[in-house]
């Protein structure tokens, strides 16, 4: 097994489990939960105990691949590509969550909801790989990436804002049609994801919606407030909402780490 080879550690959420137990409402570290520092600790723990081992394991699958059932398999059909795609999605999610903490520190908490929503989207796409049994899903995601590159380039070039965007062949290597509709794949992943993780994504989605439609409540009641719209006590940047954003960010990291760890554990056990 890869996990037993010298120099290659398996993924693990044991440290993250301890962190979340201690940051629970009745835990020893409850007072620091919901702070930027706590979220940054969770992100760093996820990088070191799940993402980095996942990257190393995926690299070993690429250099010393297991015997695939089909003799004519290509790299996008292999277990190595599957694991690498999971690692990429997880890295994207962690980057989004890290950006949330940066925006939070700089006082741009409303913008943080949009970035957190991007992280939640990354988790739902991750579920297509970790929670479903569609064997062509990694290749389909690569195809969707290629399609999105061309769609963006065409849309940007129509704006005539600068030098045209040309899609590099390496960014759109797989351009043929997907085997399964994207919404079907996303729904399948959501359906099989843990209920707690689905609730977390739903809460983030509602937070993003709130950030999009927010109008100060005081302004709705008192025209005099128009001269002074900002209020840290009752406005969009109030402490309760800011803390909720950070709790959701940490929860998103943890939920994703659990899914990634489970997928890698199952995969490596069958090597």
Structural features, described:
There is one protein chain. This protein has 271 residues and is mainly α. It contains 9 helices and no strands. It has helices at residues 14-22, 36-63, 79-105, 109-130, 137-159, 182-192, 195-213, 217-221, 239-269. The longest helix is centred in the C-terminal third of the chain and has 31 residues, at 239-269. It is globular, with a radius of gyration of 21 Å.
Question: In terms of topology, how is this protein built?
Answer:
Blueprint: H1 14-22, H2 36-63, H3 79-105, H4 109-130, H5 137-159, H6 182-192, H7 195-213, H8 217-221, H9 239-269
Order of helices and strands: HHHHHHHHH
Strand portion: under 5%
Structural class: mainly alpha
Overall number of strands: 0
Q: In DSSP terms, counting alpha (H) and pi (I) runs of 4 or more, how many helices? A: 9
For the sheet with most strands, the description reads: none
Radius of gyration: 21 Å
Low-confidence stretches: 1-7
First-last Cα distance:
6 Å
- What does the overall shape look like? globular
Helix fraction bin: 55-70%
- The mean pLDDT is 88
């Amino acid at each position: 097994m890869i996990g037993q080879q010298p120099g290659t550690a398996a993924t693990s959420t044991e440290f993250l489990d301890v962190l979340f137990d201690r940051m629970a409402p009745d835990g020893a570290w409850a007072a620091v939960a919901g702070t930027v520092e706590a979220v940054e600790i969770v992100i760093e723990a996820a990088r070191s105990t799940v993402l980095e081992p996942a990257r190393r394991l995926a690299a070993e699958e690429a250099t010393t691949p297991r015997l695939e059932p089909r003799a004519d398999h290509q790299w996008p059909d292999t277990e190595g590509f599957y694991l690498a795609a999971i690692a990429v999605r997880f890295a994207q999610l962690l980057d989004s969550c890290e950006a949330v903490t940066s925006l939070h520190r700089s006082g741009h908490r409303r913008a943080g909801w949009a970035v957190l929503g991007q992280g939640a989207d990354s988790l739902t796409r991750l579920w297509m790989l970790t929670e479903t049994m569609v064997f062509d899903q990694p290749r389909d995601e690569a195809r969707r990436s290629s399609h999105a590159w061309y769609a963006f380039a065409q849309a940007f070039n129509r704006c005539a804002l600068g030098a045209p965007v040309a899609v590099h062949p390496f960014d759109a290597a797989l351009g043929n049609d997907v085997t399964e509709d994207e919404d079907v794949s996303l729904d399948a992943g959501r359906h099989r994801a843990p209920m707690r993780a689905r609730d977390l994504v739903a809460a983030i989605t509602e937070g993003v919606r709130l950030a999009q439609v927010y109008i100060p409540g005081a302004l709705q009641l008192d025209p005099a407030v128009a001269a002074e719209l900002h209020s840290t006590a009752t406005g969009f940047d109030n402490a309760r909402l800011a803390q909720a954003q950070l709790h959701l960010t940490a929860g998103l990291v943890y939920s994703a780490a659990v899914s990634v760890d489970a997928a890698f554990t199952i995969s490596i056990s069958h090597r």
